[in-house]
C-alpha cells in the first residue's frame, strides 16, 4: 500500500512539473511584456525584447542563466551577453574566452552579440574588490549603446557568494537607485536560493513556481541537455564538483528573478 501511494504521489509530482513547464512557455511572453511595458504581439513573439545578460566570468552564462537564455532565444528575443572578465584567475583567459563563445553559440547567442572585457580593474578573483562606479559606467554605456529594455544579472548574494558577482549587483542597483536607467528598461536580479533548494535539481520546480517572483523561466529535458552541453564547452572548468553541479543544480532547469526597484530617470540626490 505504501509503495502504491509513493508511486501515485511521484506520478502527480511529475504531472505537476510538466504542467508548470507548459504554462511557463505560454505565459513567459506575457510576463516580460508586463515588465517592460511593451506591446509584443503573438505574431512577432519576443522580437521587441532587447535583453542583456550581465555576468562576471565565462561559464556564468550556462551555470546560472541557461534556462533564461534558452527561453528568451526561443521567444525570438534579441539577447546579448556582457561578461566583465575573461576568467583569467589561472592565466587561462584566452582559452576561456573561446569556451564562452562556443557555449553561447549552443545557447543561441552569436559572437557579435557578446562583449567580453579584459580590464585590469576587473580581475577574476573572489578576493578582488571591483570598483562599483566603474562597473556601473561600463554597464550603462552598454545599455545605452544597444537600447536594451531588459537587463538580467545576479542578486546581492550572487548565487555562489562570489565577490565579482556581488559587485555587478551593486553596480546595477546603483544605476537603478540614482535614476540613470532609461524609463523603458527593466532590471532583474537572479534569486539566490539556499543550499538544499539549490541542489534539488528539477524537483525544485514546484517550489520555485509557488514562490513569488517577477519572472520565472524553466526548461524541460531538451533545454537541460542544451544547458549541459553548453557547460561542457568550458573544458577548463570541468573539475569533479562541476559534474555534480550540472547533475543536481536547479539553476540548470529554472531561474527566478525579482525586479530591482528603479528611481525616476535623472533623479537628483542631494
Could you characterize what this model shows?
The chain is α/β, with parallel strands linked by helices. The chain has one domain: LmbE-like (Rossmann fold, 3-Layer(aba) Sandwich). It is 47% helix and 13% strand. It contains 11 helices and 7 strands. Strands 3-2-1-4-5-7-6 form a 7-stranded mixed β-sheet, with helices on both faces. Helix 4 packs antiparallel against helix 10 and helix 5 crosses helix 7. It is globular and about 60 Å long. InterPro entries: GlcNAc_PI_deacetylase-related (IPR003737), LmbE-like_dom_sf (IPR024078). GO terms for molecular function: N-acetylglucosaminylphosphatidylinositol deacetylase activity. Its EC number is 3.5.1.89.
Summarize the structure.
The chain has 270 residues and is of the alpha/beta class. It has one domain (1-38, 45-259): LmbE-like (Rossmann fold, 3-Layer(aba) Sandwich), CATH 3.40.50.10320. It has helices at 2-36, 60-63, 66-74, 93-107, 132-146, 158-161, 163-177, 195-198, 205-210, 221-231, 240-248; strands at residues 50-55, 78-83, 114-116, 150-154, 186-190, 215-218, 254-259.
Q: What is the strand and helix layout of this fold?
A:
Layout: H1 2-36, E1 50-55, H2 60-63, H3 66-74, E2 78-83, H4 93-107, E3 114-116, H5 132-146, E4 150-154, H6 158-161, H7 163-177, E5 186-190, H8 195-198, H9 205-210, E6 215-218, H10 221-231, H11 240-248, E7 254-259
Parallel strand pairs: 1-2, 1-4, 2-3, 4-5
Antiparallel strand pairs: 5-7, 6-7
Amino acid at each position: 500500500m505504501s509503495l502504491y501511494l509513493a508511486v501515485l504521489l511521484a506520478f502527480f509530482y511529475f504531472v505537476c512539473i510538466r504542467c508548470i513547464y507548459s504554462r511557463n512557455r505560454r505565459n513567459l511572453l506575457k510576463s516580460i511584456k508586463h515588465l517592460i511595458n511593451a506591446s509584443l504581439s503573438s505574431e512577432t513573439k519576443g522580437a521587441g525584447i532587447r535583453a542583456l545578460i550581465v555576468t562576471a566570468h565565462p561559464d556564468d552564462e550556462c551555470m546560472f542563466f541557461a534556462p533564461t537564455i534558452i527561453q528568451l532565444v526561443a521567444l525570438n528575443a534579441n539577447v546579448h551577453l556582457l561578461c566583465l572578465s575573461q576568467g583569467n584567475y589561472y592565466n587561462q583567459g584566452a582559452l576561456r574566452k573561446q569556451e564562452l563563445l562556443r557555449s553561447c553559440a549552443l545557447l543561441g547567442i552569436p559572437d557579435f552579440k557578446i562583449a567580453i572585457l579584459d580590464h585590469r580593474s576587473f580581475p577574476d578573483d573572489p578576493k578582488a574588490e571591483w570598483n562599483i562606479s566603474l562597473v556601473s559606467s561600463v554597464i550603462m554605456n552598454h545599455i545605452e549603446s544597444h537600447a536594451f529594455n531588459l537587463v538580467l544579472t545576479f542578486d546581492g548574494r550572487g548565487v555562489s557568494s562570489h565577490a565579482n558577482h556581488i559587485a555587478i549587483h551593486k553596480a546595477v542597483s546603483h544605476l537603478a537607485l540614482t535614476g540613470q536607467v532609461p524609463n523603458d528598461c527593466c532590471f532583474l536580479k537572479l534569486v539566490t536560493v539556499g543550499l538544499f533548494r539549490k541542489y534539488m535539481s528539477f524537483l525544485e520546480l514546484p517550489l520555485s513556481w509557488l514562490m513569488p517572483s517577477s519572472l520565472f523561466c524553466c526548461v524541460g529535458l531538451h533545454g537541460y541537455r542544451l544547458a549541459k552541453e553548453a557547460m561542457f564547452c568550458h573544458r577548463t572548468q570541468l573539475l569533479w564538483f562541476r559534474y555534480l553541479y550540472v547533475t543536481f543544480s536547479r539553476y540548470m532547469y529554472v531561474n527566478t528573478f525579482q525586479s530591482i526597484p528603479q528611481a525616476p530617470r535623472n533623479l537628483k540626490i542631494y
